[in-house]
Design goal:
By secondary structure, the chain is mainly alpha-helical. It has 17 helices and 3 strands. The protein has helices at residues 3-13, 16-23, 26-46, 55-74, 77-82, 84-101, 121-137, 142-145, 148-166, 171-188, 192-211, 215-225, 236-248, 259-262, 274-307, 311-335, 353-371, and strands at residues 103-105, 108-114, 117-119. Strand 1 (103-105) and strand 2 (108-114) form a beta hairpin. It is globular. It starts with a helix and ends in a 13-residue tail after the last helix. The relative contact order is 0.15.
Length: 384
């Protein structure tokens, strides 16, 4: 591409709100709307065929999230980059605050009560970590990437929030946070064996960490290995989930006809086990179609990163797409019994206010990468 043509593209990227609205990927937003629509149907069914109390709130929150998403897409990605470490510091402060005075529920202290709505600072922290790591690595030369001292600050930037989240305790989110951080490291060009070395150290200390887990966390791991050992206690959730998935068959029992869900055998059917309820009613075909829609959204996010001309945007898109993937992977693997049960929602499908808003904030950052994919970073590595 000629220099004059490239400058024209970058000038257009900085030109007004109207041009930025034109550059938004509206097809991607349609995909998100389709996913939220699936969530509406599933939550409508979870309430026994009523928009209250789940489905109506779900669609209102999604509409609010769309406004946030478009607003974030209008913000210059370079301004977002300058505020990356501010967001990180704010996330750490909220994690400390939740440990001091957070709301306690189900044996964990993970939430802050804001006006009657419970928010999880750990969800915000995942996005703040991605922003901080993208900012740290976007201006790094290959020579600096090979310097172990250069990697100490970002490693600490991952370990600090992971440690604070583990203290809540919230093992699932802590693992997701660590995985997302590791993927950004790899995307930035850190040698794979260095990331593998850190992962190996984590595996070595895992038995020690197991001894410090809460009783209910150890029960989840034990039950994962043999759910039938406690069919009416710790193993009840996964056993009922498997029954519901199997009873759906190929084509499902039909909308509003799921027996496990509507007879209240299926636990947490509006949140953690929403995929199970959907698959019981729409069968394996419906479940695969939903997984295909989720996969399309993930791949679309990665493609936005690949089209971006600056390293900050590429790493930001990679981190946000990985975070979305981890939501999907952990939730579906959990309800199918592939991993221990944990409280991770299916994005834009499960009921829950703070999780949806955090997902939409992430999508807004992703869309800002797309809108500002051709801008120049004066202190970064611009790609031609």
């Amino acid at each position: 591409m000629a220099l004059s043509e490239r400058r024209l593209i970058r000038a257009e990227a900085d030109f007004g709100i109207a041009n930025k609205l034109w550059r938004i990927s509206w097809l991607y937003i349609v995909l998100l709307c389709m996913l939220a629509g699936v969530g509406y149907l599933a939550l409508y069914s979870a309430a026994g065929g009523s928009p209250e109390p789940y489905a109506a709130k779900h669609i209102l929150r999604f509409g609010f999230g769309l406004v946030i998403m478009v607003a974030l897409a209008m913000i210059d990605i370079r301004l977002i980059a300058r505020l990356s470490w501010v967001a990180y510091a704010g996330g750490i402060a909220l994690l400390v605050l939740v440990l001091k005075m957070g709301h306690v529920g189900k044996g964990a202290q993970r939430w802050i009560d804001l006006g009657g709505t419970l928010w999880q600072p750990s969800e915000l922290m995942k996005l703040a970590l991605i922003l901080a790591l993208a900012h740290w690595f976007h201006k790094a030369s290959w020579e600096r990437m090979g310097n172990p001292l250069f990697l100490i600050p970002p490693i600490l930037a991952v370990l600090v929030p992971v440690g604070l989240i583990l203290k809540e305790p919230n093992l699932g989110t802590a693992v997701i946070c660590a995985v997302v951080g590791g993927v950004v490291f790899l995307g930035a060009g850190v040698r794979w064996w260095k990331v593998a070395l850190v992962a190996g150290l984590i595996v070595i200390v895992a038995p020690i960490a197991y001894d410090h887990l809460h009783d209910y966390q150890r029960a989840r791991i034990t039950t994962f290995m043999n759910p039938e050992s406690d069919p009416l206690g710790a193993g009840y959730n996964i056993i009922q989930s498997r029954i519901a998935l199997g009873s759906g068959g190929m084509w499902g029992k039909g909308f509003l006809q799921g027996t496990q869900g509507h007879l209240n055998f299926l636990p947490e059917k509006q949140t953690d086990f929403i995929f199970t309820m959907f698959a019981e009613e729409f069968g394996m075909v419906g479940g695969l179609a939903l997984m295909g829609l989720l996969a399309t959204i993930i791949v679309g996010g990665l493609l936005i990163g690949l089209r971006c001309r600056h390293q900050y945007g590429r790493l930001l898109a990679l981190g946000i797409s990985t975070n979305f993937f981890m939501y999907v992977f952990v939730n579906i693997a959990m309800v199918t019994g592939s991993i221990p049960v944990g409280g991770v929602p299916l994005p834009l499908v499960s009921h829950g206010g703070s999780a949806m808003i955090m997902v939409m904030i992430g999508m807004g950052l992703l869309m800002s990468v797309h809108v500002h994919r051709d801008v120049e970073f004066p202190d970064g590595r611009d790609e031609t």
